[in-house]
Each structure stands twice: as structure tokens, then as C-alpha cells.
């Protein structure tokens, strides 16, 4: 289920590189590169590895991520919930 307006996302990505660096994606979304790397590792944003330290995010995959981002579960929130349960036990 798509929750974000595809036209707004297409406008946002207009002129964006077809293969973007994690830094470029972070700048676009106004989040840190650590967050982008976490999303790539967890599979939320599919990326292409072109070497040990070279990752690229295809524009098509970033678009799909943005269309469905509202449905993404926050792994940090789940960890915090687990910590609260441990503390109350």
C-alpha cells in the first residue's frame, strides 16, 4: 500500500542522480549517514555494493522506499520497548 503522493516524490527526485551515494540520500532526506547505512543494512533501502566501502542507492529503489516509508517499522523503537519490558520485570 502506497501512502505518500507519487507526484510529490517524483518532484523531490527530479534531477537526482540515478545512482546516489548514501551521503546524497542523507542530505536529501535530512538524516545522517548513520541512519541511511542502518536502513541499507536492514534492507529498507536496497543498495548496490561496488566495493568494500562503495555503496550506491538506485533512484528507483529510493522512490519505492519513499512511497512506503510511513509503513516502515522503527527498529530503535522496538529495542526501547524491549528495554522497558526488561526494566519493569
Describe the protein.
This protein is mostly helical and 89 residues long. 56% of the residues lie in helices and 9% in strands. It is built from 5 helices and 3 strands; from the N terminus they run αβααββαα. It has helices spanning 6-13, 22-29, 33-42, 59-68, 75-88, and strands at residues 19-20, 48-49, 55-58. A 3-stranded antiparallel beta sheet has the order 1-3-2. A hairpin with a 5-residue loop joins strand 2 and strand 3 (55-58). The protein is globular. 11% of the residues are buried. The model has no long low-confidence stretch (mean pLDDT 86).
Mean pLDDT: 86
Q: What overall geometry do the principal axes of the alpha carbons give? A: globular
Please report the total strand number as a whole number. 3
* Helix/strand order, N-terminal first: HEHHEEHH
From the N-terminal CA to the C-terminal CA, the straight-line distance is 37 Å
Question: Percent helix among the residues?
Answer: 55-70%
Name the strands of the widest sheet in spatial order. Answer: 1-3-2
Q: Catalogue the unreliable spans.
A: none
How many helical stretches? 5
Rg calculated over all Cα atoms: 15 Å
Describe this structure in a few short sentences.
This protein is mainly alpha-helical. It has five helices and three strands; from the N terminus they run αβααββαα.
Amino acid at each position: 500500500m502506497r501512502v505518500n503522493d507519487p507526484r510529490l516524490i517524483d518532484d523531490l527526485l527530479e534531477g537526482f542522480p540515478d545512482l546516489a551515494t548514501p551521503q546524497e540520500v542523507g542530505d536529501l532526506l535530512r538524516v545522517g549517514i548513520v541512519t541511511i547505512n542502518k536502513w541499507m543494512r536492514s534492507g529498507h533501502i536496497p543498495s548496490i555494493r561496488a566495493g568494500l566501502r562503495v555503496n550506491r542507492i538506485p533512484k528507483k529503489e529510493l522512490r519505492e522506499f519513499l512511497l512506503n516509508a510511513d509503513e516502515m517499522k522503527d527498529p530503535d523503537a522496538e529495542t526501547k520497548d524491549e528495554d522497558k519490558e526488561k526494566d519493569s520485570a
